[in-house]
Design brief:
alpha+beta; Fructose-1,6-Bisphosphatase, Chain A, domain 1; D-Maltodextrin-Binding Protein, domain 2; 2 domains; eight-stranded mixed beta sheet; five-stranded mixed beta sheet; 8 helices; about 30% helix; binds 2,5-anhydro-1,6-di-O-phosphono-D-mannitol; binds magnesium ion
Length: about 325
Amino acid sequence: MPPESHVVTISRFLIDEERKYPEATGAFTSLLSDIALAAKVIGREVNKAGLVDIFGAVGHENVHGEDQQKLDVFANQVMYRALDHTGLVACLASEESEELISIPAKFPAGEYVVIYDPLDGSSNIDVNVSIGTIFSIHRKITSGARGTLEDCLQPGSRQVAAGYILYGSSTMLVYTSGTGVHGFTLDPSIGEFILSHPDMRMPEPPKKVYSVNEAYFTRWSRGQQLLVSHLKNEGGFGSRYIGSMVADVHRTLLQGGLFMYPPERAQPEGKLRLLYEAAPMAMIIEQAGGRASTGTQDINDITPTGLHQRVPIYMGSKEFVALSEEMLAAE
Ligand code: AHM
Ligand code: MG
């Protein structure tokens, strides 16, 4: 007889979580379920990306001046269509859209603001490297019926939930709603996300690994150069850099370490965006016992000033983030 095991699907898990809060309306559970459905649809296309002629830029640039890949466009539409008509969402913001995305007048609006990067790391699609979707959820704070820019520009510390979907050797959905981090792996044979990583915590002691694009070394500040030199020489750190944030942060979450995207000469604010990438990943890392800093302040203390604001990132095991802040301040 196989050992007794309980299979917990994401729907079961969300319903059980909801029961802990008698005042819960079920809206949040529905919202997460909608995102999980979008994840399955995006995951399905990502997994067969090599089979169909879906590669390559569609011939126009996104708001950051970067080539948009076809799968980005597809993932962006899937996220939008999973959420626009539900009556749960006040407004949306996507890394792929310059402006706030309003809910069409023909649909009811709800209380949640959903901000997402539909397919992060899309330059890796062609070479079959793991990519991901990142999402951040706030509650609407303005009093009107529909969400506004102000509802999107809230500090990360006010997120009610955040998560990502990693399209890797398996598809995983990892999320937090402020009471720990939970990971689900897609069983493709039944099309269900199954709880595989309950209550994820970053390991202590952490693995000594730093993750940064070291090709920019000569363009870094002296403090940043000294930090990385210290980690690999005196610190005895190893290095891993996939160049796909969801995959790099996922590894950091599971093994411990330090993920960095520092400022450099050509990009003084760094590359990654506060609302779509930094804030949601920061909430997850913090909920798992780690920290996320810009080098001088906690990422989730920042009140955003624009939808596409960028921010330097140092996230991972607490002691490594503290060491980074210390060494950067010394220079
Ligand atoms: P994207 O939003 O255009 O896909 O870019 C974000 C990606 C991240 O996944 C990754 O951490 C970073 O860009 C890598 O950048 P670089 O190639 O400069 O190291
Ligand atoms: Mg991105």
